Amino acid sequence: MNSPALALDADPPPESLSGPADLPRLLDEVHRFVAAFVRPAADAEDATAETFRAALGKLRFPIPRHEARAWLLTVARRRIADHRRKRRHERLDENLAQGGDPDLGPAVRAVLAQLPEDQAAALVLKYALGLSAEETAAVLGKSLAATNSLLQRARSGFAEKGAFLDPEVNP
Amino acid sequence: MTEDRLTNLLAEAADLAPSAALRDRVAALRPRPRTPWFALSGVSATLAGLAFLALPREISAAELGRRADRAIRASGTYRIRSERFLNGAWRLHHQVLNTPDGQLCRWPDGRFQIRKPGALYTRFDRAGPIRSSRYVRIETGVERAMDENPSPENHRRLLQAAQRGRPARFVLSLGRLLQEHGRRLREVAIVGPSTDRTRTRYLIDETTSLPVRMEQDVRIGDAWRPNWRKSFTFGEPPIGNETFAALLRSAPIVDVDAERARWTRRLAPVRRTLRPPHGEPLAVRDLRTLPNGDVVMLYSGPQRALASLEGAQGEAFALRRSIPGTGIYPDRRHPVRLLHFVPLRGDAVASGPLRLRLFWNGRPNGTFRIEAPRQAAATPPWALALDAAFDETSRDEARVTALADRWLDARGGRLEGRFGQDPDADLRTTEVDRLAPPPGAVRPDPAAANEAAALMRRLIARLAAQGEEEDPEWTARLLAKLERRAKG
Fold it and tell me: Is the separation of the CB atoms in B161 and B151 below 8 Å?
């Protein structure tokens, strides 16, 4: 016989998506992830829309929300990788990297662009989207230990290349 | 850099909110309809069924190739008496079947050949002596497979074949009398005009009257040098019919005997011989209207002669290729063709005549008019008419064969009326135009050709008579006369 205390302690049932019409609920997260790497904004929107189009043919509903998000972010990561390959030849704007622009967004994206792809993705997933380490590992397709190690290297790399963004180092 | 600072900075990078347009775009996405499982299952089942139907044929054909290969290894040659062969591997037309060590071929005239590296073995499936041959290239000393035309079984037919249709081209002359392995061999040379660089010599066994060897010489300066040689063997033991039985009962079988009998029956009557201004005549074998109003004509003629059946209110479908099933008909020089005329207006009885246009080498060669009342068609058979168009694929060959079967076995009415060209004929033909010969066309001199042919026939008759001695003077006179004629 279940006591009320035990019922209160139980985890709430995971939120689920019942059909394709529920997919836009994940639009914000996916688009923010894509927009951290893909600019201009029109390209980011195209990549996001393509990600959702692919999901429509592949996902089987109903599906837990976190699984759908992980799936979408994984597909989005491939789109981002394609975008980075196309833009590899473009040189970084030196002035932007010097932190002269009062808007931090482009400067941060410039620093992310200098990091290896998986490190940059791990940083955005963990700190910009607020995913847990386990969820980040699921999106990246790595183990939890490997993801923690990757995050550690990513933080170091970001601190090194983005030192000019830290007011404690550059008051 | 603290984690809070890192969170703030990265949030700056990912601060772009989706636009309203993007929201609408994503919301408007609809999943593509999935292929239903039963459709996939149906396609899979169909493919599996087709494979299942084709497997017996393929397996049996492969087994046939293996058996034939074993047989030829055992005896050095083989002989076939069976007339039942695997469809696909042994169709009515010639087919090539790859075996582990070579190729096995069957030709419409009954030849069976096995090509192996360095050799070509030939068997004839017909009454009379059975000949097999091996080809040797003397120049290189290496045996090599080579294509070969059907050859007659004895030297009389052989010599007739040499002069057939080309009386001024080749000249026969008797050569040496040789002794070889206790046999008396008579040498017969076939030489062309003096400009020809090659000559062919046959060594004929005087006892059996069969060729033992054929050699070709090449003229180098004033001397003849041997070029290649074919040796013939006869009367080797046959291979049993069981070798050529289908391994699997479900393999499709073509009864060549029955097909040959059917086409021989169809092609036996010659209802009318059409003589165009140029070239050889055409033989009208069958001409009838079908119950649906179509007009169908079966004819045979030389390779270069074609015909089309046309009318004021109809569509002509000239089936310009030979009907595949007629490949077994013995007269290979005159393929059988089928014409199909479809009336355009099914509810009208066309009163105008049909025109039969003839072509020679692709050029117009006269037009004949067929006065024939045609029946009204209840329904224009468009589908059938469209089916009649075909090209080179074997699938279309099979379709034309099926159409021919349907047409020729239908209870169609014979065309009534007459060909006006010959009042005594059952059908009346009116020649409406006679075109000038194409530019550059050379009219053969019938008198000269007939004279040369008569001379050749005399020579052949003398050679064919057993025990006749050579008459060098007579041969020399003939040679000189024909060479003069060949030079013009």
Answer: yes
Cα separation, B458 vs B413, whole angstroms: 48
pLDDT score at A146: 92
For residue A168, the chain B residue with the least C-alpha distance is B1
% of chain B with per-residue pLDDT over 90: 0
Contact B68, B243 (CB under 8 A): yes
Cβ atoms of B92 and B325 within 8 Å: the answer is: yes
Residue A145 three-state SS: helix
| Chain A residue closest in CA terms to B9 | A108
What are the CA-CA distances from residue B118 to residues B146, B200, B213, B301 (Å)?
Answer: 9, 21, 18, 38
Q: Spell out the residues 6+ positions from residue A161 whose beta carbon is closer than 8 angstroms to its own.
A: A111, A114, A115
- CA of A103, closest CA in chain B: separation in Å? 9
Q: Do A45 and B27 touch (CB under 8 A)?
A: no
Using CB atoms, pick whichever of A24, A57, A108 lies closest to residue B31. Answer: A57
Least CB-CB distance to B14: which of A20, A36, A48? A36
Which residues in chain B have Cβ-Cβ distances shorter than 8 Å to A128?
A: 7, 10-11, 13-14
CA distance B328 to B83: 12
Q: Which residues of A touch B13 (CB under 8 A)?
A: 36, 104-105, 108-109, 112, 124, 128
Tokens of B87: 């469809």
ipTM value greater than 0.85? no
Task: Please name the residue that has the structure tokens 């039963």.
Answer: B38
β-bridge pairing B119-124 and B131-137: unpaired
Min Cα separation B2/chain A (Å): 9
Q: B342: exposed, middle or buried (C-beta count within 10 Å: 0-12, 13-18, 19+)?
A: buried
Instruction: Note whether A24 contacts B26, CB cutoff 8 Å.
Output: yes
Beta-ladder partners of B153? none
CA distance linking residue B133 with residue B103, whole number of Å? 16
Residue B465 at interface with chain A, using a CB cutoff of 8 Å? no
Average pLDDT in the B58-79 region? 60
pLDDT of residue A153: 92
A85: Cα within 13 Å, side-chain hemisphere: 6
Q: Residue A56: which of B21, B25, B29 has the nearest Cβ?
A: B29
Choose among B5, B15, B30: nearest Cβ to A105: B15
Judged against a pLDDT cut of 70, whether residue B383 lies above it is answered with no
Cβ B14–A24 below 8 Å, yes or no?
no
Identify the CA nearest to A119 among candidates A165, A65, A162, A72: A162
Give the confidence band of B219 by pLDDT, cuts at 50, 70, 90. confident
Higher pLDDT, B384 or B307: B307
